[in-house]
Amino acid sequence: MLVLFGVAFCLIVYRLVAIQGSHGYAQVSSATQQSLTLYGLRGSILAANGNELAFSEERPTIFADPGEIADPAGEAVKLAGVLHRSAFTLQSQLSAKTTYVPLVTGASNATAKAVSKLGLPGIGTVDEPIRYYADGTLGLPLIGRVNAAGGGVGGLEQTYNGVLQGKNGKIVRQVDPQGLPVAGDVTTDRPATDGDDILTTINPALQYQVDQILAADLVHSKGTEGVIMVEDTRTGKILADSNMQMDGNKAVEATSNFSFMHTFDPGSVGKIVTVSAGLAQHKITPTSKIADPYSLNVADSSFHDDWSHPSETLTPTSLLAQSSDVGAIQVAKRIGPQALYDYLKAYGLTQKTDINWPGESSGQIYPPAAWSGTSLPTYAFGDGYDITGAQMISAVNTIADGGKYVPPRLVTALVGADGQKQPLKAPKPHRVVPRWVAREMTPMLEQVVSSGTGQAAQIPGYAIAGKTGTAATYDANGQVNNLYNNSSFAGFAPAQHPRLTVIVTISHTSLFGAQAAVPAFQQVMKDALTDLGIGSDGPQPGPSVKAVPIISGHPDTALLPAG
């Protein structure tokens, strides 16, 4: 009877709470009073179009107080038909040695009403907040989740926990020595307040497409994990951020957000920094002659290109198209260690992004004072340092946006309970290289796609600019594992008037960047251009440098003609 009286009282209190904002409550008893917690609902995570990616609702929890139940078997049979649960399992729960057992959380109002109609001793319902994710597991490494206490864990849930988290209120009521409420003696100490919503930059339709493409590509390439990010070139808004890992033979959503938290050697994508720095420092021009022997000795170490060839002369354009490591070393030697490091830093590769992701890595790039004799040559072609996918897409986007670094963004506004938006100030961009350097880099990167290692990125009617990357992996002892690569491709389109920048990274695959990353890039960029209605500024230019033959989907630089 005490439980039923208490439930009746709760219904009265719930009506009081409803007047204050329709918040649920939970109760804690003491000898002389009972304290009721009013729940402040957690704010929603909204897609760029305003649709809810994550939201909270108050839904009934059906619970039991086994201490008030004299006939567990009989009540279990009656509940089984309403809850569609096994009577045997319910009997076990109703016989537990405790005073509170949740039987169903997030129940429908109809189910809660049906349970109440049974009038079973020791069975009650209470409204509690439940977190829902509109598209199931879609984008969960980006969105995050909440724990049993309602706090954000990972992703945007954790990053903006202080904004999203509602503030609970409290009602205190006096009780008599038997624990029964004193009629009319209810005071509201503090009303509950809902958390604010956050408006993100994510395009849910594009996110879904990118997830599907990455999952298929990860299975095809037999990598261990992968990342695809799509960024609005002009604003830095992240339109899609997909993170996948392998679970047996199946690609699944990653356990964390690799885009911000996992690092990799960028490989030849890093040559974009080296060549643009050489241009900005007036050490090279797009037509400079660069000696390219097959191998080169630096600090008693031998470096060589990935294909056997006689000594030749390259331009920076053909250096990028053929992805010559030796050519990149020659450029780095002209600009020197400090200048190369300064540009790596200016491109945002030595620090975290302004997004301030929980657990975000700042990468690992040492200053010149800590360099060995082989640091300059390895840094020149994108090896010897580690960065995140978020850092790399922002660096490539710098060329796309005319030499200006645009900080990436994931949240643009807070939305209060009254629906009013509070725009968040965008981080300030900064100039990395002069605009003329970006203008000279763009046709050079177009040739990577027209005639070089990125030919599989071509999209009919559009000009694409980008760069492949294939970097070594290491075993547990820090030794190079020649069987597997970290493969990537980053680029932008339409090349002459960029609107979108995309990066694809596949880790621990036996395939090269041209095989593992470029085809996925082509699919993502093609879908994004179409879905967003972005027109072409002209078709892919024809080859202007020596073409790299494509054999079985892999640029076979061994077939390049001599000279």
What does this structure look like?
The chain is an alpha+beta fold and 563 residues long. 31% of the residues lie in helices and 28% in strands. The protein has 18 helices and 29 strands. Strands 3, 4, 5, 6, 11, 22 and 23 form a seven-stranded mixed beta sheet that branches. It is elongated and about 95 Å long. Residues 1-31 have low confidence and may be disordered.
How are the SSEs placed, and which strands pair?
Blueprint: H1 2-20, E1 25-29, E2 33-38, E3 45-46, E4 52-64, H2 72-83, H3 87-94, E5 101-104, H4 109-118, E6 123-133, H5 140-143, E7 145-146, E8 152-153, H6 155-159, H7 161-164, E9 169-175, E10 181-190, E11 197-200, H8 204-221, E12 225-232, E13 238-247, E14 250-253, H9 258-261, E15 263-264, H10 271-280, E16 290-292, E17 295-298, E18 301-304, E19 312-314, H11 316-322, H12 325-335, H13 337-346, H14 375-380, E20 387-388, H15 389-400, E21 404-405, E22 411-415, E23 421-423, E24 430-431, H16 435-450, E25 465-474, E26 480-493, E27 500-509, H17 513-516, H18 518-531, E28 550-551, E29 554-555
Parallel strand pairs: 3-11
Antiparallel strand pairs: 1-2, 2-9, 3-4, 4-5, 4-6, 7-8, 9-10, 11-22, 12-13, 12-27, 13-14, 15-20, 16-19, 17-18, 21-24, 22-23, 25-26, 26-27, 28-29
Helix pairs in contact: 2-3, 2-4, 8-18, 10-12, 11-16
